[in-house]
Amino acid sequence: MSExxxxxxxxxxxxxxxxxxxxxxxAMRDHDTAGKTFAVKAVISIPxxxxxxxxxxxxxxxxxxxx
Length: 67
Hints:
Blueprint: H1 3-29, E1 37-46, E2 51-60
Antiparallel strand pairs: 1-2
């Protein structure tokens, strides 16, 4: 793959990681999540290429004030 492709993909994935972490942390701060585990799903799609990639996982809740 080309260097332009690699750089654009890395930039996109970094943005996904940073913004997703910020959103999850905000949601955790806004709710009482202590002692709970949450199912989480991430979906990346490129409709023009017929791609839909899903990742399922879990995130442990944080004590109030930790997230």
